[in-house]
Every structure is written in C-alpha cells, then in structure tokens.
C-alpha cells in the first residue's frame, strides 16, 4: 500500500477546506461520491489529463494510513488502482501542501514528492 497519496486541488477550494477544518472534495468528487487521489506514480498524468493548463493549483500530500477503511484502491484508468476516499478527509491526515505551478513548457512543475 502507498504510504502517501496526493490530491491536486485549486488553492481557493483548499483554503476554504482549511478554514472549515475538513476537506469534503472538489465538485467532481462530490458528484462521484468519493474523493479522488493519485499515487506518486499517477499524479503527473492526473495533472495533465484533468488539470491541463490550470493555474492556482496545490499538491496536497496525504498520509494514506490515517484515512482508515474508507480509503479504497479501485481499478480506474488503464486498469490501474487509484485511491478513492469514501468520506471527508480530516486535515490531520495532511502531510504537506505545496504549490503546483505551470512551468515554461505549460506542464505542471511538481515539487519534490516523498515516496
């Protein structure tokens, strides 16, 4: 199991979650009934596919073990297992939050990510 999973989110949405002390998810999460996360290996493709060209994003590193049994790895894109959280995410599970800016090539410039 992956020790750290990642959420890409608009900074404005994240700041609201911080103020409320919980993250219920982005509109797509609320629509799908779970919070979408990516593993370290999946994060760049997720950024390209779902957030291409978007500015004002954050990369949130989350301690997967802190999410309990509501975190389920399910088959998604290309048969890969993606982490989905069927609950709100407590802020206590957050390891760190870093900016996810666009680089000169128009792709997101990822910060150092822990394994």
Q: Say how many strands there are.
A: 8
Helix and strand composition category: alpha+beta
Mean pLDDT: 93
Order of helices and strands: EHEHEHEEEEE
- What is the CA-based Rg, rounded? 13 Å
Approximate strand percentage: 25-35%
Q: Supply the CATH superfamily name.
A: Protein of unknown function DUF952
- Backbone shape: globular
Whole-number tally of structural domains: 1
State the end-to-end CA separation.
11 Å
CATH topology: ADP-ribosylation fold
Q: Order of strands across the biggest sheet?
A: 1-4-8
Helical amount among residues, as a percent range? 10-25%
Largest sheet: 3 strands, antiparallel
Number of helices: 3
Which CATH class? Alpha Beta
Summarize the topology.
Elements: E1 4-10, H1 11-20, E2 22-23, H2 27-32, E3 35-36, H3 43-51, E4 57-63, E5 71-75, E6 81-85, E7 89-90, E8 94-99
């Amino acid at each position: 199991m992956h020790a750290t999973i990642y959420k890409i989110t608009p900074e404005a949405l994240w700041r609201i979650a911080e103020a409320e002390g919980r993250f219920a998810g982005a509109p797509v999460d609320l629509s799908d009934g779970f919070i979408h996360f990516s593993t370290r290996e999946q994060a760049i493709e997720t950024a390209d596919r779902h957030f291409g060209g978007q500015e004002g994003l954050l990369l949130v590193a989350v301690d997967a073990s802190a999410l309990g049994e509501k975190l389920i790895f399910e088959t998604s894109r290309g048969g890969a297992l993606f982490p989905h959280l069927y609950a709100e995410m407590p802020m206590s599970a957050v390891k760190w939050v870093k900016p996810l800016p666009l680089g000169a090539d128009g792709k997101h410039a990822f910060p150092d990510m822990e394994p």
